[in-house]
Write a structure and sequence with these properties.
- With 254 residues, the chain is an alpha+beta fold.
- The chain folds into three domains: 100 residues, Tetratricopeptide repeat domain (Serine Threonine Protein Phosphatase 5, Tetratricopeptide repeat); 60 residues; 60 residues, Roll (SH3 type barrels).
- The protein has nine helices and seven strands.
- The strands form two sheets. Strands 6-5-4-1-7 form a five-stranded antiparallel beta sheet. It has a two-stranded antiparallel ribbon with strand order 2-3.
- It is extended, with a radius of gyration of 23 Å.
- The two termini are 29 Å apart.
Length: 254
């Protein structure tokens, strides 16, 4: 296993090469990374997974990167990549389980405000197999509705025409629902308002400047929602509703 001090340098070198990787090379790197991880060479596996990440992204890839960081005891980045994976695959039980395991090592145990949720079933429904699934479904449903309605207009048989029109109408509704889900998923995936604390300790203040009252202290791995930025400071909200200001360099967006 390579010394951990060399990993950042090697990761930069591999990232520069990975920008021009072919699909076959990406698959080869992914397979090699999996073998390295299984053999216990976690640093090497992370370097290879990060190289792949410069070319493509997927819930599985982000999940594997999170696992590498967790094995290397980099809890904030493990939480960060599990959260990123969960954004792409909201109902993935493995990602949720490992995220919860990583959160157990986070100092701040922030209680979330009560909210309505349908759990993993809703997560799998809205997330689909990938972030673009609902967009593809909307296109197929729109195409089928066009074919069915066009066929109905050309058909002379009255009963057959009614069946095609009814089916076409249903497909129009399916297309509309798919477009709504696709828009929701697009907004969800592109939303970068949530972030993970990367600094070991952060004083969260009442105003966006040094010397103001410290409202509370946060530690690495804690998840926050970014509300706004002002004068080089970032206003954040915790899951329990507490709000305060902190330097933006202490966090990384999900």
């Amino acid at each position: 296993m390579k010394p951990l001090l060399l990993i950042p340098v090697l990761m930069v070198a591999h990232a520069a090469v990975a920008k021009h990787l072919s699909e076959a090379q990406v698959d080869s790197l992914s397979a090699k990374a999996s073998r390295s991880y299984a053999a216990g060479n976690v640093g090497e596996a992370l370097m290879l997974y990060d190289s792949v990440w410069t070319t493509r992204t997927s819930p599985d890839l982000l999940y594997n990167i999170g696992n590498c960081h967790f094995k290397l005891n980099d809890i904030p980045r493990a939480v960060l990549f599990y959260e990123r994976a969960l954004k792409l695959a909201p109902g993935d039980e493995d990602v949720k389980a490992n995220l919860e395991l990583a959160r157990q090592s986070v100092v701040d145990r922030v209680n979330e405000l009560p909210s309505f949720s349908l759990g993993s079933t809703w997560g799998r429904l809205r997330g689909g197999a990938d972030a673009d699934q609902w967009a593809r479904r909307s296109l197929w449903a729109a195409f089928l509705s066009f074919i069915l309605i066009a066929g109905a207009l050309m058909l002379k048989h009255r009963t057959g025409r009614r069946v095609l029109l009814a089916t076409g109408g249903i497909m129009v509704l399916v297309a509309g629902m798919s477009v709504a889900f696709a828009a929701f998923r697009h907004a969800e995936v592109t939303d970068d308002s949530e972030a993970i604390i990367m600094a070991a300790k952060v004083d969260v203040r009442s105003e966006p400047r040094t010397g103001t009252t410290v409202l509370f202290v946060l530690h690495k791995g804690t998840k926050v929602t970014v509300l706004q930025e002002e004068n080089g400071w970032t206003e954040v909200r915790l899951a329990n509703g507490n709000v305060g200001w902190m330097p933006p360099s202490t966090l990384e967006r999900i």
